[in-house]
Structure formats: structure tokens, C-alpha cells
Amino acid sequence: MHCALYDANRCRSCQWLEKSYPQQIDDKQSLLQQLLADHPVAEWRAPVLSAQQAFRNKAKMVVSGSVERPVLGLLHADGEAVDLIDCPLYPASFRTVFAALIPFIARAGLTPYHVARRRGELKFVLLTESTRGELMLRFVLRSEQKLTQLQAALPWLQAELPQLKVITANIQPVPMAILEGKEEIFLTAQHALAEQLNDVPLSIRPQSFFQTNAPVAAQLYQTAREWVRALPVESMWDLFCGVGGFGLHCATPQMRLTGIEISAEAIACAQQSAQAMGLHQVNFAALDSTQFATGNDSAPQLVLVNPPRRGIGETLCQWLSEMAPPWILYSSCNARSMAEDIARLPDYAVQRVQLFDMFPHTAHYEVLTLLERKS
């Protein structure tokens, strides 16, 4: 993949861009194998590859410049605005949206926020596209001062971009490098973006996590489904479940499934999907995953965990060791913390590992690992 911004040293987000894609995959697989070197792996599955460009379904753009000439992208280390509307990681459809947003910002009088001066209103625009081509657009504002102007100008934007289904204003008043605030104001009647991966309907609400690479995410979820359904499992927990992608793929009408996620927004999405699928033995709750698990005196047959980068940690590992579920399915975005957690689970054998290249041109990847209790 060629990127003029990388060549000009204006954006270095793709740290591995100078490596060939086969070399990137080889390096990631080698790093993963090194991290698990102390844990015998019964089966290594071949890595799942990604498209090398236009794979991102999200854009998180800093808004800088002036109200007449806004710049969407990032701020360089020297404070200069870097225009990212032509970033090759974004699909071509995003350029149409950015082309409409630039004049819209002027129409709505949304003055870009100046970090050093702490003046202005519009901090970020956050864009998400579903595989159906529908869009969610979020304006991150310093305050509600320009909200009326934003609402008044929206009909023009909606006429230009009929694929916009969910539009919100997020209020982030803190003068720090924080992407979003707690307050979300819906500017459309629709509050969630409809998505479907494989045969599972999913919903994406503004503050719920969703993978940035939908084709690879679909393969990740489908793989988890195949591995789980090959096991004699009738009860399962999906911890750190997000919008329910893993659990909803693995569930059957007979399976008892509990999904736990601290984000109430994500749980609302998961519940909606379970209802649409007619799954009556599925329960999702907005709770802390570790506190939920350790508050129980027994475990289901399989515990699926999909934690943030820090991993599941010592407390949850100790509980799993004591409760001894027959299987643990571990999905990780940080193989280092996953390896540390596996070391805390000496009574489990690593049966299967597969790398999913969710983030080409970087050192990051997802990995799915099946652990089985030793007899």
C-alpha cells in the first residue's frame, strides 16, 4: 500500500508500512509464537489475512483549521493540522462524507477547537459505516453552545448524505486529549446503526465498542462459533462481551448463555440482537465482568473472554483455576497480556491458536486461543 502522508512523514500510524504484507504476517506469527513459547500448543491454525487498504469502517478525525476551512485528520507533533481525508485505510465512500462535512461545518458555524487556546467548539467527527453502507456520525463538541445551529443545519447534510441513519452530538468539555464525553445527544430518531456479520444481526450504538475491520471480525466470530459448537457445551459465559458478537454467534436455542459487559450501551445492543434472533435462554447484563464471575460459586462449561488490552488479570485467572470450567476461549487484542494470563492458568492446556490480522501495517493483531482443562 502506498501512502503519500507516510512518505512525507506527516502520519506514521501505519508503523509497518515499509514491510511487505507477507513479511508483516510472518513477523506477527513469529512474535505470537515467541510469547507462547512456554506453553505447548497442540494446533497452530494459519493466520487470517486482511485487505491491505480500505478496510476500516471507522474514522476518528480531529477537526482543526478554521470554520471556513476546516481540516479533518490529526494534529502533527509540531501542532500543524494533517488532512487525512485521502487516507488509503478508509473506503472510497468516506471521501463523499468528508466532502460534504467540510462545507457543512461552515454552514453550521461549528468553530474548530483550538487545543492551545482552548477556544472553539467542534473537537472531533467520528464516523462509522455498516457493511450495508449506512452511517453513524457523531460530532464531539466542547459544549451545547452550538447545538441549535447544528440541528438547524442538519437537513442540508441529510439531503446530501441520505445514508446517514444515526447522528449525535457528544459533549466533551474537558480540555484534555479525551475522545468523547459521557453525554450523548441524539439528533435523529434512530439511535443504533444496524449491522450484520455472517447471519447474526448486530446493533452499534454511539458509545459501544465495535471492531474496525468488519470482514476479519466476521471470520473471527465464525471461527469462535465453529470451535464452540464442536464441543459438548450447553452453558457458556461471554465476558467482556461488547455488543454480543461472540456469544450470539456461538449460541444455539438450547444453550444457556450469559453475556457480561460494563457498558450499558453495548448491552442494549446485545439484548436487541438476542431478541431479534429469538434466543430465549440468553441473558445480557451491564456489569463488571470480573466482579460478576467472582461473585458466583460455580462456572459454566465454557467461559469466553474478550478483554481489553490489559487482559483478564490475576483475580479472574485465580477464580477460573478454582472453578475449573472444562474450556476457556480467549480472544485477545494483546497477545502479551494473554500469555501472562495463560501462565496464571497452569491447569489448562493450549489446544488451538489462530491469528487474525485486524490491523494491517501495524504490530497489532487479534488472536483466538482455545484452552482445555487438563485431566
From TrEMBL:
<keyword id="KW-0479">Metal-binding</keyword>
<feature type="binding site">
    <location>
        <position position="306"/>
    </location>
    <ligand>
        <name>S-adenosyl-L-methionine</name>
    </ligand>
</feature>
<dbReference type="InterPro" id="IPR029063">
    <property type="entry name" value="SAM-dependent_MTases_sf"/>
</dbReference>
<keyword id="KW-0949">S-adenosyl-L-methionine</keyword>
<keyword id="KW-0808">Transferase</keyword>
<protein>
    <recommendedName>
        <fullName>23S rRNA (uracil(747)-C(5))-methyltransferase RlmC</fullName>
        <ecNumber>2.1.1.189</ecNumber>
    </recommendedName>
</protein>
<dbReference type="GO" id="GO:0051539">
    <property type="term" value="F:4 iron, 4 sulfur cluster binding"/>
</dbReference>
<dbReference type="InterPro" id="IPR011825">
    <property type="entry name" value="23SrRNA_MeTrfase_RlmC"/>
</dbReference>
<dbReference type="InterPro" id="IPR030391">
    <property type="entry name" value="MeTrfase_TrmA_CS"/>
</dbReference>
<feature type="binding site">
    <location>
        <position position="240"/>
    </location>
    <ligand>
        <name>S-adenosyl-L-methionine</name>
    </ligand>
</feature>
<feature type="binding site">
    <location>
        <position position="11"/>
    </location>
    <ligand>
        <name>[4Fe-4S] cluster</name>
    </ligand>
</feature>
<keyword id="KW-0489">Methyltransferase</keyword>
<comment type="similarity">
    <text>Belongs to the class I-like SAM-binding methyltransferase superfamily. RNA M5U methyltransferase family. RlmC subfamily.</text>
</comment>
<feature type="active site">
    <location>
        <position position="333"/>
    </location>
</feature>
<keyword id="KW-0698">rRNA processing</keyword>
<dbReference type="Pfam" id="PF05958">
    <property type="entry name" value="tRNA_U5-meth_tr"/>
</dbReference>
<keyword id="KW-0004">4Fe-4S</keyword>
<feature type="binding site">
    <location>
        <position position="3"/>
    </location>
    <ligand>
        <name>[4Fe-4S] cluster</name>
    </ligand>
</feature>
<feature type="binding site">
    <location>
        <position position="14"/>
    </location>
    <ligand>
        <name>[4Fe-4S] cluster</name>
    </ligand>
</feature>
<feature type="binding site">
    <location>
        <position position="211"/>
    </location>
    <ligand>
        <name>S-adenosyl-L-methionine</name>
    </ligand>
</feature>
<dbReference type="InterPro" id="IPR010280">
    <property type="entry name" value="U5_MeTrfase_fam"/>
</dbReference>
<keyword id="KW-0408">Iron</keyword>
<dbReference type="GO" id="GO:0005506">
    <property type="term" value="F:iron ion binding"/>
</dbReference>
<keyword id="KW-0411">Iron-sulfur</keyword>
<comment type="function">
    <text>Catalyzes the formation of 5-methyl-uridine at position 747 (m5U747) in 23S rRNA.</text>
</comment>
<feature type="active site" description="Nucleophile">
    <location>
        <position position="333"/>
    </location>
</feature>
<feature type="binding site">
    <location>
        <position position="87"/>
    </location>
    <ligand>
        <name>[4Fe-4S] cluster</name>
    </ligand>
</feature>
<dbReference type="InterPro" id="IPR030390">
    <property type="entry name" value="MeTrfase_TrmA_AS"/>
</dbReference>
<feature type="binding site">
    <location>
        <position position="261"/>
    </location>
    <ligand>
        <name>S-adenosyl-L-methionine</name>
    </ligand>
</feature>
<dbReference type="GO" id="GO:0070475">
    <property type="term" value="P:rRNA base methylation"/>
</dbReference>
<dbReference type="GO" id="GO:0070041">
    <property type="term" value="F:rRNA (uridine-C5-)-methyltransferase activity"/>
</dbReference>
